[in-house]
Design a protein that fits this description.
Layout lengths: L25 H4 L2 H13 L4 H5 L8 E4 L20 E4 L1 H13 L2
Antiparallel strand pairs: 1-2
Length: 105
Amino acid sequence: MPTIPTVKKKPWTQEHVQHKRIKDMRWFYNSRKWRRYSKDYKARNPFCLQCEEAGIVKPAKVTDHLETYEQQPKGFDLDALNDKYMQPLCKKCHDSKSGREAHKK
């Protein structure tokens, strides 16, 4: 039976916060429910929302939360995943949005 791999801590490496985020969200994004929901959502919404608004047709590669966990924890409930908290984005749009959120003070 497959198990979730454990993170091995190397004694010579320094501790760091993942992507300088307040909360580690690996428990959410590595879950089977999220991966299944995300795949289904991208099948129903195949194009990047931001590119489409700019008149560009580009396939969505990422199911993105509209707001962060700190702003909207309801959107991260694995038992009640809802389309109103999500948006389909291409990798470029997702990375630029995540970068803006990460550097916002």
